[in-house]
Amino acid sequence: MIRFFYVIIMRIFSIMYFVPKMSYYAKHPEKYSEQDRYDLALGVIDRVRRTARVTTTYYGQENIPEKSGYIMFANHQGKYDALGILEGHPKPCSVLMDKKRSQMFIAKQFVDLLDGQRIEKNSPRQQIRVINDMAREVSEGKNYLVFPEGGYGKKVDNSIEEFKYGCFICAIKAKCPVVPVVVIDSYKAFGVNSLKKVKTKVIYMKPIEYSEYEGMKAPELCQHVKKLIAEEIERQTATAETK
User: Fold this and answer.
1) Crossing angle of the two packed helices 2-10 and 34-52, in degrees rounded to 10
2) Which H or E run includes 63?
3) Model pLDDT, residue 77
4) For residues 96 and 130, is the Cβ–Cβ distance under 8 A?
5) What are the backbone angles phi and psi of residue 234, rounded to the nearest 5°?
6) What is the mean pLDDT of residues 77-81?
C-alpha cells in the first residue's frame, strides 16, 4: 500500500487535472470517440506506472484478435492488474468491475471513461441484466476485460483462486473469442510495502474461438480457461526459479 499512497501524493496535481477530464470525456461520447477515451485512459495508466516504478513485459500480443468483439479473462492479483493488461492492449477495451469497488474515487471515473459494466455481487437479477448487456455489446464489436476470481484478497504470490463461471455466460451468449490472460508478479505493484522497482509480466494467450468451445456449458468453459491460466503460471514460475 505504500506505493499506492506514494503515487497519490506524487501525482496529486495530475489527479486534480485528469479526474475531471476523465469525467468530462465520459459524459460526452458524442464529442470523444471510444478511441479518444481509451487513449486518455492509457495516458493516465502510463503516468501511474512510471510513478509507481513498475515495468511490465508483454508476451503474446500477436494473439490479440484482429477483429473486435472478444472477452479477455485474466487471473487477479491486485489493483495494478487491469492497468498492466490494458497498457499492453492496443485497441479500446472496457472492464467488468464489482459495483462497490467501482464507486471509489478515481476507479469510478476510470470505469466511466471506459464505459465499463458494474456488477452487484448480491443481486442475481442485476447480474443477469449485466451479462445480457455485455453479450450484446461484445456481439456488436466491444471488447471486455474480466477477472473471473472476482477479487484478489491479500495476494503474496502468483497463486489463483476459484473462478466464478457466471461471467463466462457472456462469452457463450456472444459466441465470441475468449482470450486467457496471465499476470505474473502483479501483486507486488501495490500489495508489497516497498518502493523498490517492480517487474511484472502479462501474457496474452492464444484465443479460444467459439468453434472450439461450442457446446460447453459455462462451468466447463470456466474450468478450461482456469486450467490454461494455471498451467501458464506454473511454466512462468518454474522458468523464473531456474534463472
Assistant:
1) 110
2) none
3) 95
4) yes
5) -60, -40
6) 94
Mean pLDDT confidence for 210-229: 98
- C-alpha grid cell, residue 54: 513498475
The Cα 97–Cα 93 span in angstroms is 13
Give residue 191's pLDDT: 87
Reduce the secondary structure of 156-203 to three states and give it as a string.
Answer: CCCCCCCCCHHHHHHHHHHCCCEEEEEEECCHHHHHCCCCCCEEEEEE
Task: Give 92-151 pLDDT, tens digit per residue.
Answer: 999 999 998 888 889 999 999 999 999 998 899 999 999 999 999 999 999 999 999 988
Name the grid cell of 13. 496535481
The set of residues, in sequence order, having a beta carbon less than 8 Å from that of 154 and lying 6+ positions away, is 191
Here the cell at position 135 is: 453479450
Spatial contact of 190 and 79, defined as CB atoms under 8 Å apart: yes
Long-range contacts of 106-111 (CB under 8 A, 24+ apart): 106/15, 106/19, 109/19, 109/22, 109/23, 109/26, 110/22, 110/41, 110/44
pLDDT tens-digit series, residues 174-207: 999 999 999 999 999 998 888 999 999 999 999 9
Do 209 and 66 form a contact (C-beta atoms < 8 A)? no
